[in-house]
C-alpha cells in the first residue's frame, strides 16, 4: 500500500486495520480523534494551548504529506510516459549490450565487439551452438588493445543460412603465447517495447529477452 492510500483511507465510524497498517492514522481518523478529545475533555482542565497547537501542526503535516505524495505520483507518471516515448523510436533498430550470447539480427547476421585488455598477436572469435559445436571461427589476426568489432553473415560458403538461434561467443586472444583478457558485447535487434503493468520503467523486447534501455552501450 502506498503512502497516498494510507493517508486517504475511507471514512467511517469504525476504523479497521485492513486499509491502514497497525499504529497509523489517516486524516479522517485523526480528525475523529481530535474531535473526541475536544468534546470529552474536562471543562475545568481543558487541553493545554501548547498541546493543541502541536496537534494542529501534526494534522497540517499529515495533510501536507498527502498532497506532496499526490504531486510526486503525478510527476512519476509523467516521467514514465516520457521514458516510454523516448525509447519508442528504438523499435526496428539494434543495440550493443554486454553479453557473450549472440542472436541473429534481422538479416540473419551475428555481430558484436570484444574489448581487449592488452594488444594481442592472434585473436579468434568462435560462435558455439547449444550443443557445444563450433558453428563459425572468425580470425581477427593481431589487434591492439581496446574495442575490436566482429561479424558473420550467418551463412556458409555457398550462401546458405547455417544457424538461426542464439550462439555463445568464445574469445581466444593471446600475446607471446599468453592469454589476453577481453570483454564481450553483442548486437541484438529491438522488436518492441513492453511497459510493466505496475507503471515501472519500460523494457525493450530483444533477441536476448526483455532488457532495460539502460544496458544499451550503443545503438545502430
What structural keywords apply?
220 residues; single chain; 7-stranded antiparallel β-sheet; 3 helices; alpha+beta; 2 domains
Report on the architecture of this protein.
With 220 residues, the protein is of the alpha+beta class. The strands form two sheets. Strands 1, 3, 6, 9, 10, 11 and 12 form a seven-stranded antiparallel sheet that branches. Strands 2, 4, 5, 7 and 8 form a five-stranded antiparallel sheet that branches. It has two domains: 3-88; 94-219, Immunoglobulin-like, CATH 2.60.40.4070. It is 27% helix and 33% strand.
How is this fold's topology laid out?
Elements: H1 3-7, H2 27-40, H3 49-88, E1 94-97, E2 101-102, E3 110-116, E4 120-128, E5 134-143, E6 146-152, E7 167-175, E8 178-179, E9 182-194, E10 203-206, E11 209-211, E12 218-219
Antiparallel strand pairs: 1-9, 1-12, 2-7, 3-6, 3-9, 4-5, 4-7, 7-8, 9-10, 10-11
Helix pairs in contact: 2-3
